[in-house]
Amino acid sequence: MSEIDINSLSEPEMRLKKMQDMRTAGDEPYKYSGERSAAIAELLQKYESLKPEEESAETYQIAGRVVAKRGHGKASFGNILDQSGKLQYYAKVDLLGESAYHKLLHEVDLGDIIWAQGKIFRTQRGELSIKLEKFAILTKALLPLPEKFHGLTDKETRYRQRYLDLIANPEVKDVFQKRSKILRLVRELLDGEGFIEVETPVLQMIPGGAAARPFKTFHNALSMELYLRISLELPLKRLIVGGFEKVYEIGRVFRNEGISYKHNPEYTLLELYQAYTDCEGMLLLTERLISGAVKALTGNYKIQYVGQEIDFTTPWKRVVYGDIKNMDAFEAETVHPTFIVDFPLADSPLAKKHRSKPGLVERFELIVAGMELANAYSELNDPLDQDARFDEQVKQRAAGNLEANMKDEDYVTALKHGMPPTGGLGIGIDRLVMLLTGQESIRDVLLFPHMRELPKTEKQAI
Q1: Is the residue at 155 inside a domain?
Q2: pLDDT value, residue 456
């Protein structure tokens, strides 16, 4: 490609022509594989003590995205980024050869994904690098990285084009790697408590288990209106009726509600149910589960969150619901884990009546850093009481409360067959991840948060 050609083309046009030229020359710009012998992080660790101008005895193959290029003489440098980390490459014309070196300088663009082979060495300036012996373009990027790639900060762009966010901001990957680890820890802790993980339907004929407005859909073959689940509760409690004694599910639930820093229309919920226990048993399990996850992840029971220390050392404080004069202020001002206990009967259609306090139910909510993190209760297992409470919810729906529960006749039938005394617990996984990764918005712990639709002019600008 001549200088005139390059100067007459826009950046995307130039990249497209380079891709077409590769094909013409018989070099496939979208290759099928790129064999690697090591991840970049492994090499950085293995050769951490390498001295300047020393090199490895072994030759390695790596692959990743080119995120920096510099130098135009007989030696040049760049950075290759893979999932695990970033490594500098060092290229010399006498090692690569004239043709390959020219290709590296003039055909490889920022954003291209390349395969590279060479020995690991440390430059005179102390930078651990791979000395290129061979390289190949694995994937030609037809669009450039954002102008502000090194420090992409615009929230709208970051959330709408998460792939760019992940390339530009390595710390974002760290958040989601920690999220994966938190989920593993929760599963390990529950498995250690004797729970088994199960799966229940996402599409339901009757959405239940929470006070929320559902999303509707339609099954064409069955000509049936269905709903995306708003909770995992009622199917899991059917399993308790069926003889399972400790079950849990970690799954997506969907609520047709507003969006805020701590709300997303779909989010990840942990729900678990245990036979032969009650609200107090769930409270103690909550302490073990969350404090255990904190300790396993951080090595301590204290974390820093938004400039304040939160202490997860158990036991946690308990406050009676009726003693709170201003609930909004109490959620906003509560920093350390605090249980709100003994809720009004009218607010809890699936919870068992309090055994000693008329008008209340055996239920708690866990508040941490001003957010509700968990909700639990002694499960209502009296079928006649449950039937009456469903009828009351139906009246509320008829009066215009679209968040009131629908009546689930089959669930009442299940209870008539007998459900043992049971404790149930729900924990918002996204909010737990927010706390343990120091994120102030739920959007920062969801890879693809929901966003408003952009006008066409704004879509074109992205």
Answers
A1: no
A2: 66
